[in-house]
Amino acid sequence: xxxxxxxxxxxxxxxxxxxxxxxxxxxxxxxxxxxxxxxxxxxxxxxxxxxxxxxxxxxxxxxxxxxxxxxxxxxxxxxxxxxxxxxxxxxxxxxxxxxxxxxxxxxxxxxxxxxxxxxxxxxxxxxxxxxxxxxxxxxxxxxxxxxx
Length: 148
Hints:
By secondary structure, the chain is an alpha/beta fold.
């Protein structure tokens, strides 16, 4: 599960987890930056909303960055939990959504950070294939020749 690489990008989902386990994973990965790609960084899970999560990361020497421009719009979320066809459509919709210059610039910035240290993209879903962060990861990895 954990990487022995010093640079690159990984994904973290917090579904079924608590703040302590997310921090533990971030430390095990030796992350430099945790990028929150939730449109609205709030959670019903204690500690996993923006303010507390950012504080926990800072306490452990990890930069927390919220990038709402990479959030998945509410109207597109159900497709990620749907059938294979619905999932494909949701991924395509999201890819079109992040084709904006603002989102492209955010992914360029993540790629720069990933060349300097190991960064993680965080969202809710445990199954990365069922989360929009998989699209972010794919698009950032295309910007990273020779780095996973």
